[in-house]
Amino acid sequence: MLDKFLKIIWLIVGLIVLSALVIAIIFAITDLIHQKQSINDTVIIGHKLKNAIKEGKTLQGMEYEQFDRIGISNKFYLPISSMTYEEAKVYKGALSSGSDMSYRFGNIINILFLDSAYNVLNTLVDFKARISNIEYPTRLNKEDKTEYMLTYLIGTEDSNKNGLLDIDDNHNLYVSEIDGTGLKRISENIDIEQFRHVRNNTQLLISYFERNNEKKEHQRKKFALYDFKLDSLIKLNKIDAELDKIEHILISD
Asked: Which range scores top for mean pLDDT: 14-28, 62-76, 174-188, 204-218?
């Protein structure tokens, strides 16, 4: 009888310990997720930055890691990110806990371009910016200079007026030479969804939405081609027309 009672006691104790362990794991995972979400892809600008300067405070600094080769070329680039000091604490804490976290591709503010001997060739921008995407051809043809063009999504304006350059601000499509020179904007008043090099890297295939107050879920995705040689953005309106016909069949009796 005593043995049975002890077994029940040990079973209850085991269940309590197991429950405590499960709760501890859940809290640890929740904390880790919170740490990752606490690092915002933002650049502090506007009144927040001006007030900090007046008070003699430094709100953010630079963060960078290693050089990366651009495709199979002999050029390299170094993405430079911004990080607030509060974000730096969270980032370092996550790293010390063994979390696999890479920050630089979340919040790039500029890019250094280097040659094969790591001599600096160029800096991409000389203004405040948030660079959310960098794309380049994976195969390069030396006979065609257009294949060396790099493409970026860059935000330069606090369009939602929250004092930050962040993911919710308007971003436009830019292109440059492989060494970062000749940067120019090639899109306006459209929200880019995706873009990729096509036709031997002489064009970009772009999917986008019109930039207006209408919610994205109520808009139709559209397509365009940017031609590097012609320096021209061509909207593929015939695809829109065919999609109109398909939609009409779908919603009609």
From this structure: 174-188
